[in-house]
Amino acid sequence: MEREMIIKLLEDYKSEQLTKEEALDILKMMPFEDLGFVKIDHHRALRNGYPEVIFGLGKTPEQIGEIFSKLAARNNSVLATRVEEQGFNAILSRCPEANYHERSKLVTLVRGNQPQRGNILVVAAGTADLPVAEEAAISAEVMGNKVTRLYDVGVAGLHRLLASSQKFTEAQVVIVVAGMEGALASVVGGLVEQPVVAVPTSVGYGANFKGISALLCMLNSCASGVSVVNIDNGFGAATVANAYQLGIEKAINKQRGHSHEDF
After folding, report:
1. Average pLDDT rounded to a whole number, residues 241-257
2. Predicted TM-score (pTM) of this structure
3. Is the bond preceding 61 in cis, omega lying within 30 degrees of 0?
């Protein structure tokens, strides 16, 4: 449940548009809703700044559709990751507004005009890394961030990366997605002053060990300011980058003399 929805609930009760019993019926569903197979955390947006996100792997299409519809009833934006087409069809039958992003296996629902904060630059080493890069980029956009993409700029052709230096100067946070040996994160970390969120992917030949070599390379980066998420975890990178953006936004508002209640 988003902060605005709670404020509206209180205002509706105060103006007598809701009775005490009706308000209590709504409040008793908080902080979570028990559907038997899942307990949906409706307070997560209040605690973490964004509603609970559905992880589609391991869930049936019917379960995914039911959870998505319950979250959509209480939030202006909903995100589900790692969803196959059958899961999306189950969502679509309940929420016709939902959109499927086939490459990244994301399902999104965004209502109204969301303010876009800052600029997150998503950098991908190669075309094979794009499913993970798009998971990061779209997740960050749904969370309310402006996102710029810079793809196919791996270290095998470093001039491609250096030719796009302007994009780095315009970004507040950089997400770097790379498989194989994962060296791109160290290269970018050595070129920029912004925080770098590194995402190792499972792309690579046998000795890549399905992303472990890229993960270890990124964890052992000699560049400062590089944080690392799990293999193929584009959503996790978006969450970290979004947290950076929220911190920047709060610092700016504090400098302008705004209180916490103003944003």
Report:
1. 80
2. 0.83
3. no
